[in-house]
Amino acid sequence: CPRCMQCDTKFDFITRKHHCRRCGKCFCDKCCSKKVPLPRMCFVDPVRQCAECALVSQKETEFYDKQLKVLMNGATFFVTLGTSDKSELMVCRLSNNQRYLVLDGDSHYEIEIIQISTVQILTEGFTPGGGNTRAVGMILQYKVPGSEEVMQMKFVAGEDFSCNKKLSAAWLAAMHKVSK
After folding, report:
1. Where is the FYVE-type domain (predicted)?
2. Predicted TM-score (pTM) above 0.90
3. What is 74-179's CATH topology?
4. Which is nearest to 135 in space by CA: 101, 167, 103, 89?
5. Tens digit of pLDDT per residue, the chain (180 long)?
């Protein structure tokens, strides 16, 4: 590799080449100066990564350290299926193998994550001046396996004291970050 793969600087005795530990491409020191932990690839200490990979690694670390735990612990919502008027109190969580969204109440649903097509977070408290908003619900659209039919579920954080609203808001925030 005679040149930096980012800025095209030629490598020589003064300008040395460095490899990004995530993607393996060759970069100059300026383009590969970020040092970020990469535990998923067995690097315990922070290692040299290009800017693009460093950003991905930081987001990945945040996901595994924060959002994944919240999603797997679950939260309680009133869930409405399709255009129904009736909602059911259900605990929503990510399955242990992280492949399904599991909903448990009087009914039981398992939605395969790869079948989810749209995640829309419902908020309240928005002001025209850009004030604080908080997540109060979510609309989820997914395909039914073996068919082209798209189903919709609406999740709303409970208003009563049996539902922990703070936990539900944290779960919705994690779901929002993951869906981006």
Report:
1. 1-53
2. no
3. PH-domain like (2.30.29)
4. 167
5. 999 999 999 999 999 999 999 999 999 999 999 998 888 788 889 999 999 999 998 888 888 888 899 999 999 999 999 888 899 999 999 999 989 999 999 999 999 999 999 899 888 876 565 566 777 889 999 998 888 889 999 999 876 545 577 888 888 888 888 776
